[in-house]
Write a structure and sequence with these properties.
By secondary structure, the protein is of the alpha+beta class. It folds into 2 domains: 3-170; 181-289, Rieske Iron-sulfur Protein (3-layer Sandwich), CATH 2.102.10.10. The protein is built from 10 helices and 10 strands. A 6-stranded antiparallel sheet has the order 1-10-9-4-3-2. A 4-stranded antiparallel sheet has the order 5-6-7-8, with no helix packed on it. The longest helix is centred in the middle third of the chain and has 29 residues, at 111-139. The mean pLDDT is 94.
Length: 292
Amino acid sequence: MSDEKAKTNVLPNLLDTVERQAWLDGLAKGVRRVVRAVPLGGARDVLHGRWLGHALHPVLVQVPIGTWTAAAILDLMPGESRAARRLVAAGLLAAPPAAAAGWVDWADQPPRLARTGLVHAAANLAAVAVYTGSLTARYTGRPMLGRMLGFGGLTVASAGGVLGGHLAYRQAAGVNHAAAVPLVVETDWYDVGPLEDIPVGKPVRRMAGETPVLAVRHEDGRCYALADRCSHMDGSLHSGEIVDDCIECPLHGSRFRLADGENVRGPATAPQPRFECRTAPDGHLEIRLVSN
């Protein structure tokens, strides 16, 4: 790598070093255990954003970041101290639900992403602490200190935002890992082998061209086929269990209905691409991607 290119990539290279900090794994293991032990029930899927179709956390963080940015702008203007104070308070009130959504997503990330996520969370917690100090200073007659702490809090929150963007867009946390299937699979019929080789009630892996597919034969003879790589974190669905006519991902427990690929339980927020099935005259199972 040339010196010029190395200088250009300073920030991405610095962010990449975070995911290599293996010493964070012990801390991540303990925190993950705590997050998973919280009895959230159905609220966990709400926080994942299954109802929304994508992660909820990026939506919720808009409120604290937006209010704190607006407060910083008002702090530069005379006579706007009351409005700025209210915006700082609003951001602090909005931070806990945003953090809750982030933590439940983080708890299902692999070690490499979890390391980045921990540092991202630490930056956000630091920002909340600084803004708490800012609000306290504003209410106790120290407006200048409150402004300075506000600018400091926004700086720390922005650093956390950069880490969050790196986690989402460079490390692919929270994206639909099955989204490429409709782009790479032709809408033709694929022969995946003799039907008799598909066991009843047991998921197996077959190939549609170069794309792995999960195939299942029901007791009544019906066959189902879904993209094999879980939309959440790319887990191999054929290694999972069939529960209530759904396939359960062996990695994090996401469930997808075999009949239509719909995700009925998180942390996955996107359905699995589905394939139509038919039996050819020679007794082979043929599948074709269903276009949505």
